[in-house]
Amino acid sequence: MDFGTIFVDRKLVSCKWVFKIKQDVNGEVECYKAKLVARGFTQTYGVDYNKTFAPVSNFTSICCIIALAALEDLEIHQMHVKMTFLNGKFEEEIYMEEPQGFVHQGGEHLVCELHKSLYGLKQFPRAWNQKLDTFIKSVEFMKGEADPSVYVTQVGDVKFFIVVYVDNLILVCNDQTFAHQRGVESKV
User: Fold this and answer.
1) Is the pLDDT assigned to residue 28 strictly greater than 50?
2) DSSP secondary structure string, 114-165?
3) What is the DSSP string of 10-79?
4) Least confident of 8-17, 58-67, 149-158
5) How many domains does the chain divide into?
6) What angle do CA 62, 64, 70 make, to 5 degrees?
7) Enclosing H/E stretch for 173
8) Looking at residue 180, what is its pLDDT?
């Protein structure tokens, strides 16, 4: 395969490793972390990505849902989705240089074609939001009209709200078992 012809209209996205030492409350080293991050600033609009917008709930919606929960004595749960952006898929073809430490002698011309989102890419929040939106709608929630990051469903007497703020969710419901039955908490 001639790699030169693949990138006629593409520029390789560069990447870098981000290292972090996680410490416990006593300052002892708990673990070492490494994260591969794409350098999204090397992407070109219209070539490497087209859309980047991902809605997030506004503060007024969050306050209203919490007030409603207090008024109607609903249960409130907050959850953070770990490794969120690694779950998103995107439509564009993105090619990235091989990460430092992965380049083999004689393979310097090889690149990585990304099939899933990676931290740092311009379109990664949108890719995650689209995947989350598809899942929430699949378990029969509807988007709120005033705020596209608030989802609601009502089955009989059960009311359930999901408020999305990037990779944090607020789950509000008057029946604790309802979320488990729908698989909301386990599959998000």
Assistant:
1) yes
2) ESS--TT-TTHHHHHHHHHHHHHHHTT-EE-SS-TTEEEEEETTEEEEEEEE
3) --PBPEEEEEEEEE-TTS-EEEEEEEEEE-GGG--BTTTBS--------HHHHHHHHHHHHHHT-EEEEE
4) 8-17
5) 1
6) 105
7) strand 168-173
8) 64
Q: For the sheet with 158-165, list strands across it.
A: 75-80, 168-173, 158-165, 150-155, 142-143
Find the angle CA(78)-CA(83)-CA(84) to the nearest 5 degrees. 65
Q: What DSSP designation does 112 have?
A: E
Whole-number Å distance between alpha carbons of 144 and 158: 17
DSSP assigned state of 99: P
Tens-place pLDDT, residues 155-165: 888 889 999 99
HSE (side-chain half, CA atoms, 13 Å) at 70: 6
Tokens 């990676």, located at residue: 118
119/186 Cα distance (integer angstroms): 23
Q: What is the pLDDT of residue 4?
A: 40
Q: Which of 180, 144, 146, 177 is nearest to 162 (CA)?
A: 144
The percentage of residues in the chain with a pLDDT greater than 90, rounded to a whole number, is 37
Domain extent, residue 45, equals 3-187
Give the type of residue at 109: H
The pLDDT assigned to 22 comes to: 93
